[in-house]
Menaquinol:cytochrome c reductase iron-sulfur subunit (Paenibacillus arenilitoris), 177 residues
Amino acid sequence: MSNHEQHDSAHKPVQRKEMSRRQFLSYTLGGTTAFMMGGAVLPMVRFAVDPLLVKKTGSNFVKVVEESKITDEPQEFKFKIHQVDGWYESDPELSAWISKDANNNIFALSPVCKHLGCTIAWNAKGKNEYDCPCHDARYTKDGKNLAVAPKPLDEYEVKVEDGFVYVGPVRPNTRLG
Ligand code: FES
């Protein structure tokens, strides 16, 4: 080793790990890009899951008819429900067959036949039964299945308040024990 080389190595400055210009730029630009992407993407994520975060409020009951109009004889009443399915909102029209039982309790049956889903009607054949026009299923006033259909008619939850009948969600028939 020459004297010159010895001198060089003795006085070589300690190498510090300095950030190169390229690294500095890539960190800075990368950080800024990540920040901006976060600002753009987070609202999208929030929007995507928004319906899941929204608290369901309000009642499921819909005002349908004055209590005074309900008789022993089933009558069909139409009503609209407000439906929110993710981002899609709609107001489909439904109907219920509403009547009073022997104890003066008001109840409402779903018009959907439990055979294949056609729409039933009360006393269509003059027999004081619900009849289905599709395959002749028959049901009693309480919704008990008499022919063809495998199950009784479903029932709406009902409440009476301030002289009005409110109809709620559909549930399996509770009238037949
Ligand atoms: S759908 Fe009602 S009898 Fe078949």
